[in-house]
Amino acid sequence: MATLSVPHDIVSEILRRLGVKDLLRFKCISKAWCSLIDDPDFAKLHLSHSLKTGTNLSLVPRGLDGGLLSVELDSLKRARRLKHPLESYGDKFADLLGSCNGLLALMSRRDEISLWNPSTRKSRTFPAAAVEISRGRPRRGFVVYGFGYDPISDDYKLLQMAQYYFSNDDSIKSEVKVYSSSSNCWRRIQDFNFYLKYKLVHGVYANNALHFVVSRMRRSEPLVAAFDLGTEEFCLLELPDCLGTGFSLNVRAMGGCISLTVYYYLGVHVWDVHDTEIWVMKEYGVRESWTKLISVKQSEFIWGFNYVLPLAFSNNADKVLMYVDKNKFMWSGNVGRESRNYLINKEAEKEREMAWKLGKRRC
């Protein structure tokens, strides 16, 4: 019986709509299918389709034991443990330096870095770059990273920024190095002339650049700096021109665009947050394209929140999933208008609210 021959283009169109697990199984069907699925061009088509349709999206939170989990965004109920390649070094904990196109950049406590694809389980492990700042005796310092993809050179890059404070808080030294996946080596580039505001927050990848919250002076107003992965140069990103006063910033990536979270606070304590705004830059680099998505206010139901962090859009982009304060997740609906907030773990929040009210009465 004659077999039906399906054109190569049609096979490619069908396969790129499948999940990664199915593709890995279908590599065994024939040499032609295996060659097609392993083709880098097919991988780019499959990735592009997944990003457009919002399929195969997952969150990677940290478990109670310090390990990494994968949680499907559509349900937030199905989670699986990720056994990353750095566990072979005897350390379950791994710092997530960044993610891009399904790849994770991880770092162990022994300063070993791994670029890992959880779907294919392929990885590359290499040591972090040595910090060469040695002159003087710094009071304190820290190192942050950023991971992203440069489509011009077709290269994945990892940014390492070391910053040290000396006797005067306004006196710093910085050192910037870039790891290239194509050359598999580190190299030193221009220094960074701004103050990093957060020592535990790595760069956020969006629009072919890595973004950090910075300031010109140690205690001056917050700004957003962008590191272009193509030119390997830093620049400042213009903020919305209608922000108020007394706020701090957080930068995220939402739907492929850069997102800004603005925390307004009262009094002298920066953790007394009473209002949070989430902005998205619809056209990258254009200040006028900043659009306010949501304004979340402190309420009697969501009492005493000090920290709100947007994570992702829903599949139809009408809601935003947010991390609220201590291990709570919330969908905020009516994007672009007055927000309606839905706590996912409502029972836990009610118990916490009652405990807080009882404690307040006893005082």
UniProtKB/TrEMBL annotation:
It comes from the Eukaryota. Gene3D superfamilies: 1.20.1280.50. Pfam families: F-box (PF00646), FBA_1 (PF07734). SUPFAM superfamilies: F-box domain. Residues 1-45 form the F-box domain. InterPro entries: F-box-assoc_dom_typ1 (IPR006527), F-box-assoc_interact_dom (IPR017451), F-box-like_dom_sf (IPR036047), F-box_dom (IPR001810), SCF_F-box_component (IPR050796). This is F-box domain-containing protein. It comes from Hibiscus sabdariffa.
